[in-house]
Each structure stands twice: as C-alpha cells, then as structure tokens.
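Section 3.1: Structural characterization of target chains.
Under the original work plan, the team committed to producing a structural model for every single-chain target entering the pipeline before any wet-lab resources were allocated. The record below documents one such target. The sequence was received from the expression subgroup and is listed exactly as submitted; it comprises 97 residues.
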Amino acid sequence: MQADYAMMEELYNGLNLTVDNMMDKIKDAKDIVDKLNNWDIWDGNGYDAYRKKFDNLVSNFGSFCNDLYKLNNNVKISIENYKEVDRQSAEGLQNGV
C-alpha cells in the first residue's frame, strides 16, 4: 500500500480528532473525580491522596496531548512540502525542464 495525500491528510485529521477526544475524556474523568469528594462515597483521607495523584496525571496529560498536536503538525507540514515538490516537478515537466 502506498500513501497518498488523501491518506496522509486522513491520518492527520484522525490523530487530531483522537487527541481532541482524549482531552474531552480527561475532562470527564476530572468531573467524576471531583464528585468523589463526598463522605458518602469516599470516607477517610484516601481521596486527598488520590486527588493529588490524579491532578498530577491531568496536568501531565495536557502536556502530552500538546506534544501530540505538535508532532502531528509535522505530518501536515510534510503534506504541504510534498505537494509543493509535486507542483514544481509538474511545472518543470510542462516547461520541458
């Protein structure tokens, strides 16, 4: 199977959508953890320790997702660069170069 522009753009868009969904899900998880701060659900001091670890995960998760967006942007840049090379090659062939 050979990659073409459409496939590369589909991969780029798919990864962005996946990361967007991951960011939404971590927000949903944060809302759930916030609701656990209730003596009827979680009594004792365990919640505070869990919350501290979860907050650390959330802050690192955002950085991780930002890195994925940046790396995925390289795919988009590559697509544009390849298109430009193809355009110049086609132009050169039309001009007899």
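The helical segments are 5-35, 46-94.
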